[in-house]
Predict the 3D structure of the following.
Amino acid sequence: MPTVKDVAKRAGVSVATVSRVLNNSEKVSEQTRQKVLKAIEELGFKPNLLARNFRKDKSNLILVILPTIANNYFARVVKGIEDTARKNGYGILLCTTQNSPEIAAEYLKLIERKQVDGAIIASAKIEIDFCKGLDTRRIVQACEFYPFLDTSYVAIDHKRAFYDVVEYLIKKGKKNILCAIGNEDIPSEFERKEGYRKALEENGLEFREENVIRCSYGWAELYEKLKNLCCLKKYDAIACSSDLMAVGAIKAAKALGLKIPDEFSVTGFDNIMMSRLYEPSITTVAQPMYSIGEKAAQILINTLESPDTFKKQKIILPHELKTRESA
């Protein structure tokens, strides 16, 4: 692969002159510029735009931090981010943390090093001790909001969304409703649990901590927990914090011979494609995944392009209950 030195040698100029041409400097005569451009074309030289941008303290890259890429939910969020970034001349750098705050903190250091211009944190777990000294103007939180990181954010009202789906189950005649959530250190999971509690209490039903099942967002762990729950048949529904959890709940109910939704109803959360294709199709809360990514990216880009007019934004997008066969 030809280098800047090769171009300089072919054009009969210095490396510094080639650099000036690449950066559209006015300190180069038109004759010299044409010689360099001709050498670039003849050699098929591809300038390292990223390295040039680093020297300008601007990378035109947005860091996107996710907990995992295994959940289809994030695909739509990232699509919204990427489409908006590309329209505005930015690329994205996608990183996953496996829910490690330490890994998230390491990635965020790329902002300080000027290797990325800013970051969108999409549900990745973070902790206050790892976020000191960050320029929060250059960070937007999406899907999730950690209050100690005082940034703009785009999300839904998780408490209200879970309230709505639990109240729907109650109106369907369900009285003994389980709740399956993830780690309550994640703000949205705590909010969903509170939505579950509020829906029960406002409809005259007792909230019991033992009816809250904590597990990962995939299907397998909840499947095993429910299948081995000897008293599952005394319950008539479960509200799950992800569509994949709902798949595990349906599989467990079927394994125990329960008829869905008559004897046992199941709801999910997110409205990923699987929720529509699974048998039975899953009643779920639809998050506007693409719009969350799109708006988060636009907020960040607006800040990067006009930092002097920065204004923190808190955007709550509407959710929608999708009623299907499972409840």
User: Anything to note?
Assistant: Residues 4-47 form a domain with the 434 Repressor (Amino-terminal Domain) fold (CATH 1.10.260.40). The chain has three domains: 4-47, 61-156+289-319, 158-286. The CA atoms of residues 31 and 37 lie 10 Å apart.
